[in-house]
Amino acid sequence: CSGLIKIRLKFLNDTEEVAVVRPEDTVGRLKSKYFPGQENQMKFIYRGQLLQDQGRTLRSLHITDNCVIHCHRSHSATTAATVLPDPATAAPAAGGLPLGAGNLLVPAVMVVLGVVWYFHINYRQLFTAPATVSLIGVTVLFSFLAFGMYGQ
Fold it and tell me: Partner of 17 for a Cys bridge, out of 9, 46, 55, 104, CB 3.0 to 4.6 A?
C-alpha cells in the first residue's frame, strides 16, 4: 500500500481532474499543488461544506479514495485589484457613473414600464385583473430598486 489516494476535482463546467494525494496532506497543500499561484482564488467544497481551514488534513475531513471535491475559481480576490484603474491616473467620469450595460438597464426598464402603462391606459380592455395587479407589483418593486440604487 503506497498510502496515496485519488480525489476527483470537479469544476463548474462538469470537467474533472484526478488529484493523487496523501491523506495527511492539507487543504492548502492540495490547492498549492494543483493550482499554483491561484490558491487564494480557489474554493473547495466537500459534502456541501466550504473547506476554509487550509491547515486541515484530508483525513480529518474524512476524504477518502475516489471522493469528489467541487472546485470554484473566484475571480474577485485578484482580478479586482488588477482590473481597476489607478484612481490617480484615471480621468474622472463626466456624470460620476461609468457608462455600461448595468447603468443603462434601469432607464431601459423604466421606458418599457412606461410603454406598458401607456398601453394599459389606452387599451384597458386587453388587460385582465391579474395582469393589472402584476403590472402594479412590478412597478412598485422596480421603483423600490431604482430609488434604492440612485437615492443614495
Answer: 9
Is 142:116 a contact under the CB 8 Å cutoff?
Answer: no
Q: What secondary structure letter does DSSP report for 146?
A: H
Q: Residue 38: left if φ>0, alpha if ψ -120 to 50, beta else—which one?
A: alpha
Q: Is 106 helix (H, G, I), strand (E, B) or coil?
A: helix
Provide the residue-wise pLDDT of the chain in tens; the chain has 152 residues.
568 899 999 988 888 999 999 989 999 999 999 989 888 888 999 998 888 888 989 999 989 899 999 998 887 644 444 444 444 444 444 445 555 666 677 788 889 999 999 999 999 898 899 999 999 999 998 888 877 766 65
Q: Which residue has the cell 395582469?
A: 131
Question: Is 44:30 a contact under the CB 8 Å cutoff?
Answer: yes
Instruction: For the domain made up of 5-73, give the CATH fold.
Output: Ubiquitin-like (UB roll) (3.10.20)
Q: Contact at 8 Å (CB) between 113 and 139?
A: yes
| Euclidean distance between CA atoms 33 and 4, whole angstroms | 15
23 CB neighbour count, 10 Å cutoff: 16
- The answer to whether 75 and 41 have CB atoms below 8 angstroms apart is yes
